[in-house]
Amino acid sequence: MIQAYPKKHMFAAISIGAALTLLLLISPSSKVNANKTSVPLVLDTIESVTIPPETVQATNEQTSSAPLTEQEHWDTFTVNSGDTLSHLFAQAGFNDKTMYQVLGKGNKNKELTRIYPGEKIAFSSDEATLKKVKLIRSPLESYVFSANESGDYVGEKITREPEVHTAYAEGTIDSSLFLAGQKAGLSQTQIMELANIFGWDIDFVLDIRSGDQFSLVYEELFLDGEKYKNGRILAASFTNQKRKLDAVLYEQADGISNYYTPEGNSMRKAFLRTPVDFARISSHFNLKRKHPILHKIRAHKGTDYAASRGTPIKASGDGKVIHAGRKGGYGKTVIIQHGQKFTTLYAHMSKFARGVRTGKRVKQGQVIGYVGSTGLASGPHLHYEFRVNGVHKNPVRVKLPHAKPIPQQELNAFREKTSIYLAQLATFQDSYRLAAND
């Protein structure tokens, strides 16, 4: 393993809120070959990129990277589901009168009125007098409300910047992407992100083969010398059936970050290839299929994805919901119109996602419902249809239109910034190949 040397630059964590629902099961089962290392980076030409944390106004907001005074004694409580601010103050030995004093007139310290399970709230007191209240939203963000001489509590926002190390991992798939990713030291979230980056070009249900390879350069975030979490994937490569794909992260002038090919084309397409993560195809597009319940020849004008009941279903592209309700044998169904030419249909749902109804607009990747077996269904699965000008197409094989590439006026900036990550990725790949040959 290559010795790691950290390199600092700005970062804000991107929350990811999905877990893998099923493993990718691809034929032979032998030992998965994968490697992971932390590597030195000399990136003096990289510009720092700051994505500020969620904007929350404090009475007197400040930024500081220094920890709170160590001499202070704090009684800390974790916010559990159903907890109220009044209950947490009572746990610390303070009544509602004190709570309202901290909140201030007009709830000026309104951050305390928005607490969520998993966060922590701490109290520092001098005998029976409450001196400070600290709301810890995450290891990177907290708020401290301190009593001044007049007895009012003034809010201060504390933010910390993690130290960024750059790491490299690679693996060879022998049984599944999930197992190879785990062997390479990647988290489930990172494996999901890697699949999402290449998911428009690779069908991770059908296309994965033994011998496929991946490699990536990504961030590791450290606080006080200890690893806090993994950060963004900066550049990645995936070889699928001898077809090599490369992707690199780039933030455009408008602040939106996406993955692109080295030439500046978007890795995203106008549509996702599959609307359910890592599900198993149980029935293909087949115009002469025998219906499993009706027991007669009935064209199957879509693809069925078998998955556990409740598995999230995602909109395959931006569009407008033109139907959200029951539709005969389809059961609970959502139909989305994408521009003038395309429509997609999602059937047999157990329920719709909150806010999804006829007339609402949805974004690509947004959860619109959950796998079920409503209508004429023999078991829980998603029936997915893709139509072009009203004509059914095979969702697995239809050629998907691309999203917009890097604007011409940004190409030079794109090449300058991304060439560093791509060069690092290539260097590490070559180093491992040489080491393997030795």
Secondary-structure element order, N to C: EEHHEEEEEHHEEEEEEEEEEEEEEH
User: Under the CATH scheme, which class of the largest domain?
Assistant: Alpha Beta
Shape: globular
Q: So, CATH architecture of the largest domain?
A: Roll
Unreliable residue runs:
1-33, 37-69
CATH topology of the largest domain: Nuclear Transport Factor 2, Chain: A
Average pLDDT value?
A: 80
Task: List strands and helices in order, with pairings.
Elements: E1 33-38, E2 75-78, H1 85-91, H2 96-103, E3 120-126, E4 129-138, E5 141-147, E6 153-159, E7 163-172, H3 177-183, H4 188-198, E8 213-223, E9 226-240, E10 243-251, E11 257-260, E12 280-283, E13 303-306, E14 312-314, E15 319-326, E16 332-338, E17 342-352, E18 361-362, E19 367-371, E20 381-388, E21 391-393, H5 411-437
Antiparallel strand pairs: 1-7, 2-3, 3-4, 4-5, 5-6, 7-8, 8-9, 9-10, 10-11, 12-13, 13-20, 14-19, 15-16, 15-18, 16-17, 17-19, 17-20, 20-21
Spell out the key features of this protein.
ten-stranded antiparallel β-sheet; 438 residues; Nuclear Transport Factor 2, Chain: A; 14% helix; six-stranded antiparallel β-sheet; alpha+beta; Glucose Permease (Domain IIA)
